[in-house]
UniProtKB/TrEMBL annotation:
Pfam families: Glyco_trans_1_4, Glyco_trans_4_4. It comes from the Bacteria. Coiled coil: none annotated. SUPFAM superfamilies: UDP-Glycosyltransferase/glycogen phosphorylase. The lineage of its organism: Bacteria, Candidatus Eiseniibacteriota. This is Glycosyltransferase. Residues 17-199 form the Glycosyltransferase subfamily 4-like N-terminal domain.
């Protein structure tokens, strides 16, 4: 079978759990099928890195995201997305993640195969059904964002700008629901997410299945490393607001209590996306390692790993790896 796997932004190199899921999914499918990954990158260097994924059974078709194709392209894309937002009610985040050029690339790749199956990651790809013909379509959901957004709005301190945030959440939920309506087959990353979807009217009569967990835990051998007493690990991508919120919560509410009993305790923060503001707010006893190519040494030397998420969705891959 010829399968096209598409995701808005490159999953390689892996910097977050969803990237790991996509890469492992491709590896698993390629053992029996011909797989082509179609995605966007933010730079020419990103295009070059994607070639590392190519091997027998795996091809890559990629483009630089239109809004990153030079200063003029960035300005024109911004103007276009603002107009689509204002006139058609399409949130700008959706327009950036699934621009027409990208959707056409997916359609062209599927037609050239021709692909028997197209797996579209994220509901932002809802318009893909307008471009694909002759190939079976399935939507891969990584999070129930409409639920995550509601949890986010319930957090203490969410009052500032609540009305605006509620309106934006409602707009995003409308697009998410439209994606469920357009795809006949929906794949989820957890069985509980599948149950949630079965209760949504837009999903009535749909084929909804949880994906097998595409994660090889055999590569993690914690016994190969020496544990360090009082070393706490927080692992994640801090481009995501749920990880940023979790880090702020832990460093302000929990870590000070831990250090009253264990003054030598240190929190090691590993992952991309940490900015100066997060560093300033962290306080004492926090070390920032940044992004790493291999998380196994970090997992192996910590005495405890924490993941104090107050809102999130999907599957917590890093906890399984720990």
């Amino acid at each position: 079978m010829k399968i096209v796997v598409t995701v808005p932004y490159t999953p390689w190199p892996v910097t977050r759990g969803t990237g790991r899921l996509i890469v492992n999914l491709i590896e698993g499918l390629s053992k029996r099928h011909e797989v082509t990954l179609v995605t966007m990158t933010l730079s020419r260097a990103g295009l070059e890195r994607l070639r590392e994924l190519e091997r027998p059974g795996v091809k890559v078709s990629a483009m630089i995201a239109p809004h990153r194709q030079g200063a003029s392209g960035k300005l024109l894309r911004k103007m276009r997305n603002v107009v689509c937002d204002f006139l058609r009610g399409i949130p700008q985040d959706v327009s950036y993640s699934a621009p027409p050029e990208f959707l056409r690339l997916i359609a062209e790749t599927a037609a050239a195969g021709p692909a028997d199956l197209v797996l579209a990651s994220y509901w932002h790809m809802y318009r893909l059904s307008d471009y694909i013909s002759g190939s079976r379509l399935a939507l891969v959901t990584h999070d129930m964002d409409h639920i995550v957004n509601r949890e986010r709005l319930r957090l203490p301190g969410a009052g500032a700008g609540r009305v605006k945030n509620e309106k934006e959440a409602a707009r995003l939920e409308r697009i998410e629901t439209e994606a469920y309506r357009r795809f006949d087959t929906i794949l989820t990353v957890t069985a509980s997410d599948a149950e949630v979807l079965r209760g949504i009217p837009a999903c009535e009569g749909k084929k909804i299945l949880p994906l097998p967990l595409a994660l090889d835990l055999s590569v993690f051998t914690p016994g190969a490393f020496e544990r360090e007493r009082d070393r706490i690990l927080f692992l994640g991508s801090f481009h995501s607001d749920f990880n940023r919120d979790a880090l702020r919560y832990f460093t302000s509410e929990v870590l000070p209590l831990v250090r009253t009993s264990a003054p030598e305790a240190v929190l090691e923060v590993v992952g991309h996306g940490v900015d100066e503001r997060l560093r300033r707010e962290a306080g004492e006893g926090v070390e920032f390692t940044g992004g790493v190519d291999d998380i196994r040494p970090c997992l192996g030397r910590c005495s405890l790993m924490v993941l104090p998420l107050r809102f999130s969705g999907g599957v917590r891959i890093r906890m399984m790896e720990a």
